[in-house]
Amino acid sequence: MLIRRLALATVFFFQLNLVAGGQVIGWGTFYSSTITNDPPDDLGDVVALAGGTYTSLALRSDGTVASWGPELAPPGLSNITAISAGGGFYLALQTNGTIVAWGRNDHGQTNVPSDLTNVVAISASMTAHALALRSDGTVTNWGWYNVANPALATVPASATNVMAIAAGSNHDLVLRRDGTVVAWGANDAFSNFQATVPAGLSNVIAIAAGGQSSIALKSDGSVVSWGYWSSFQPVLTNVVAISAGYTHCLALHRDRTVTAWGPRDWDGPGMGTVPPGLSNVIAIASAPSYDLFLLGPSEPFALDSGQFGIQPSIGAVTIGLRGSSGQHAIRVHASMDLLHWDPVWTNSAAAGVIQLIDAGAIGAPQRYYRLEEMK
After folding, report:
1. Cβ–Cβ contacts within 10 Å for residue 204, how many?
2. What pLDDT is stored for residue 8 in this prediction?
3. Rounded to whole angstroms, how far apart are CA atoms 192 and 180?
């Protein structure tokens, strides 16, 4: 399930589910093509987007997948919880923790290891390799890296207790549960060392890997980037999501606006910029030569992070809700590690404040909460 943002409150975190959105906007063209990325009008309730070199994917709230472009998804995909699009190949994660892959297979990139189970996250590279994160925090990779030394394509021993993954072109990033980042793969002067994590980088809550660049979103809403083209990054605040194309990058802000940076038009017409008048964005995705934006409802029912309180000694949690009027059926989930979630409160609520008791928060060093609006 796609996560909208993390907001830090002492040593406890809040996490809000992304509500299903409506219109999807494509910006740019498919790779090495003059074909404009023009999403269909009837995509339905979209909760996640993924951009590949030649085809785009959209995950609907009912677990089905829509695609557009020259390389379409196989018919009948269902019970899907996550999608990823790479260099002419594509991945879909099923509710049973297994992966469906299709597209190019010249380097074994769609040959998912037969013993790969309990997967909770996937990432397809812009070239020909893929990553999978298991529920135990370990990472598996397969396919091909364009590196001179095969050892550079090996997942390092330090990639443990992982909660997020990102595959670039020939380098990879993983985010550990302690907020630090591990990188490996191609890492030379030409790429400005995109696999060399800045010293002291911490409090990271999201990562993105581009063609020759790396990006990290910190818990205070700031962004750190390194590698080729990182000098183009402006000072960014109040960021809730990030994505990376080949040389351009995107940041989604809390106010639902988007900032783009990178060498203008290098990846394709318009890249390094956003469509004029773009607003009300709730999800972003970048491909080598185009971007995708998911627009949200005009008045969402959402977390009000300014009305958060917790008493760790007794597990008393206060949550603020804002948005459209009337009662909404909601469920609050809690987690210690962002991988395993347990429902702790289910009820109807209106905009305002709700209070609940979460026994798992008592004495916990950290606790994550996720708000789900049920239909």
Report:
1. 21
2. 27
3. 20
Q: How far is CA 215 from the centre of its chain?
A: 12
Domains located in the chain, CATH noted: 20-295 (2.130.10.30), 302-373 (2.60.40)
The string of DSSP letters for 239-272 reads: EEEEEE-SS-EEEEETTS-EEEESSTTSSSTTTT
User: Which one, of 374, 251, 313, 371, lies nearest residue 6 by Cα?
Assistant: 371
Cα separation, 355 vs 319, in Å, equals: 6
244 and 209 Cβ atoms separated by less than 8 Å: yes
The dihedrals phi and psi of 185, each to the nearest 5 degrees, come to: 110, -160
Report the C-alpha gap between 349 and 153 in whole angstroms.
Answer: 49
Q: pLDDT below 70 — which residues of the chain?
A: 1-21, 32-36, 264-270, 297-308, 324, 337-339, 365, 374-375
Q: Is the dihedral of CA 295, 2, 27, 212 positive or negative?
A: positive
Task: Name the residue among 62, 14, 88, 87 with its Cα closest to residue 358.
Answer: 14
Count of beta carbons in the 10 Å neighbourhood of residue 224: 17
Q: How many CA atoms lie within 13 A of 182 on its CB side?
A: 20
Q: Of 57, 52, 100, 102, which Cα lies nearest the Cα of 79?
A: 100
Specify whether the CB–CB gap between 116 and 140 falls below 8 A. Answer: yes
- Spatial contact of 242 and 251, defined as CB atoms under 8 Å apart: yes
CB atoms inside a 10 Å sphere around CB 197: 18
> For residue 97, what are its two tokens?
């923790």
Exposed / middle / buried, residue 25 (Cβ in 10 Å: 0-12, 13-18, 19+): middle
Q: Which tokens go with 63?
A: 């677990």
How many CA atoms within 13 Å lie on the side-chain side of 107? 17
Model pLDDT for residues 204-241, shown as the tens digit of each residue: 999 999 998 999 999 899 999 999 888 899 999 999 89
Do 294 and 43 form a contact (C-beta atoms < 8 A)? no
